[in-house]
UniProtKB/TrEMBL annotation:
Pfam families tied to this protein: Pyr_redox_2
SUPFAM superfamilies (alphabetical): FAD/NAD(P)-binding domain (SSF51905)
Protein origin, superkingdom: Bacteria
Keyword annotations from UniProtKB, A to Z: Flavoprotein, Oxidoreductase
Protein name: Thioredoxin reductase
Organism of provenance: uncultured Thermomicrobiales bacterium
Keyword Transferase applies: no
GO MF, one example: thioredoxin-disulfide reductase (NADPH) activity
């Protein structure tokens, strides 16, 4: 019964009375706020003061002359102006401080591997804390649809998979901490973990499950400048609704890119998937077939991004072939560019403890 109620609550959408995020659609700071809320499955409404009368009305009610944006308004009317991720997480009631100074097991990273380790460790009676800097689920948690996960024949979203895993871990007494691990040192027989706020946690055993960081394309002209202003790494869940009736381009040739294309097809006028190589080299067959069945999705194999254009936000993309030769078309108008191009290990904080 508890599982059924949890499923119902996750999908229930009453008239909106929750958190409002007021800020420019093209603001990287606003994007980070929305991404935190979306990935933690916290309902919110995004309002852009440039296009929303409701946003301007709410800003006029705030008790300051010109509140810095983004402004997060809570249901009780309390404003939080231009908060950091840590400030917003704490205000949301997310657990940011450890309850104890010592645990049998510390797990850094709450992706599928970290969540599974937490369930197994706590089920054996180990005092376990799971530390995640963003949201449970890791990069898998951003997937709009996972259809090849054992035990879920109808498929489910990455966020739903993460929610179920966190619920399971909680039933075994796992403490989930919304923090970032920045260092670790040995003090035999213990390990001392340092968090971003300077706090330290001691443990018998540390499991490193911090996963990976998105690989970037900052070397491409315009890419770094427009990051968060029409150019995004991942972020399909938090940004898709902003692209209703617009043209979206997705870079990548693996499952994450294909899943994003499927998700955006429910919103965008046209979704174009740019892949350097044939999709068959990196994408599951079932997903290739699903993409081919949707008329608003087109796949351009052998296409790479040469340059991105725009002032305050992305307006166009220049294309080429992977070897630099011209691609036809050479330049296209674009409202959004979403990149799913692989990742690199996020283990720099471990230092020399791991060879």
């Amino acid at each position: 019964l508890d599982d059924l109620l949890d499923d119902w609550q996750a999908g229930y959408q009453p008239p909106f009375e929750g958190i409002r995020v007021i800020g420019s659609r093209w603001s990287p700071h606003t994007h980070r706020m929305k991404d935190l809320l979306a990935r933690n499955q916290i309902p919110y409404q995004s309002l852009d003061p440039e296009s929303s009368d409701e946003a301007r009305r709410l800003l006029a009610l705030v008790d300051t002359v010109t509140p810095p944006l983004p402004l997060v308004l809570f249901p009780d009317g309390t404003p939080l102006a231009a908060p950091s991720i840590a400030q917003l997480a704490e205000r949301l009631g997310l657990h940011t401080r450890a309850e104890k100074p010592f645990y049998d097991l510390v797990i850094a990273g709450a992706g599928p591997a970290g969540l599974a380790a937490a369930v197994y460790g706590a089920s054996e009676g180990l005092g376990t804390v799971l530390i995640e800097r963003e949201a449970p689920g890791g990069q898998a948690g951003t997937s709009s649809r996972i259809e090849n996960y054992l035990g879920f024949p109808q498929g489910l979203s990455g966020a739903e998979l993460a929610r179920r895993a966190v619920t399971q871990a909680g039933r075994f007494g796992v403490e989930v901490l919304r923090q970032e691990v920045v260092g670790v040192r040995r003090a035999d027989p213990y390990r001392i973990v340092t968090l971003a706020d300077g706090a330290e946690i001691a443990c018998h055993a540390l499991i490193v499950a911090t996963g990976v960081s998105y690989r970037t394309l900052d070397e491409i002209p315009g890419m770094a400048r427009l990051n968060g202003c029409g150019v995004y790494y991942g972020a399909a869940l938090s940004e898709a609704a902003n692209y209703r009736g617009q043209d979206v381009y997705i870079v990548g040739g693996a499952n994450s890119a294909g899943q994003a294309a499927m998700y955006f097809a429910s919103y965008a006028r046209r979704v174009t998937l740019l892949a350097r190589s044939p999709l068959s080299k990196g994408m599951s067959r079932y997903l290739i077939d699903q993409l081919a069945a949707i008329p608003t999705i087109r796949v351009w194999e052998g296409a790479s991004v040469r340059e991105v254009h725009g002032g305050d936000n992305l307006t166009a993309i220049s294309l080429c072939r992977p070897d630099g030769e011209p691609y036809d078309p050479g330049r296209v108008e674009a409202s959004g560019l979403f990149l799913f191009i692989g990742a690199t290990p996020r283990t720099g904080w471990v230092g020399e403890l791991i060879e």
